[in-house]
Amino acid sequence: MGAVNAGLADPKQDRAPKQDRSRATRQRLLEAAVACLAEHGWAGSTVSVVAECAGVSRGAAQHHFPTREDLFTAAVEYVAEQRSTALRDLFPDGPTDRRAVVRALVDLYTGPLFRAALHLWVAASNEVQLRPRVTELEARVGRETHHIAVEVLGADESRPGVRETVQGFLDMARGLGLANLLTDDATRRERIVAQWAEILDDVLD
């Protein structure tokens, strides 16, 4: 009996590699979905296109994400969480030079995540099934971004006008991201970053 058992695979050991492969496939699909959405927009980003970009079968994609809406809302959420983590990691000791913080937060809105999210917003304005999910996701991401901004800017929101100033800065950063979709706005953006760093210094200190 012992010899027979020795030749049998351990079910627990067999499950672990399968789970690892499944997680890796899911991550590839999420990253491919964001890249496709940023490059091709909603209309051009089908499940088949994403699956091909990720190097997996359409069936494998649908196993992880049964619907297109599941795939793209999960993808934008995944990258948003990754960017939030990366932003926190930039300032592990908390508040620091405000210009560096302003630059990092502006970069959040001028990268591929924002471009992908914008395409998702446009789609959500026309897709009834997608709209509530994207609205809920964006509200949560917005709250998280505001919380991070308050934390790394060293802002005291109990003081009058501070919360509105921080939110105004984030709204401005979103506007810079929109402008960056059509043209390379880097030179003008640098001047605006410098000006907002001074504004935040005046209001928050």
TrEMBL record:
Q: Which stretches does the entry tag as region Disordered?
A: 1-24
Q: Which InterPro entries match?
A: Homeodomain-like_sf (IPR009057), HTH-type_TetR-like_transc_reg (IPR050109), HTH_TetR (IPR001647)
UniProt KW keywords: DNA-binding
Cross-referenced SUPFAM superfamilies = Homeodomain-like
DNA-binding interval(s): 46-65
Pfam families attached here? Answer: TetR_N
Q: Superkingdom of this entry's organism?
A: Bacteria
- Biased composition (Basic and acidic residues) is annotated at 11-23
Q: Which residues cross the membrane?
A: none
Domain HTH tetR-type intervals:
23-83
Name this polypeptide is given: TetR/AcrR family transcriptional regulator
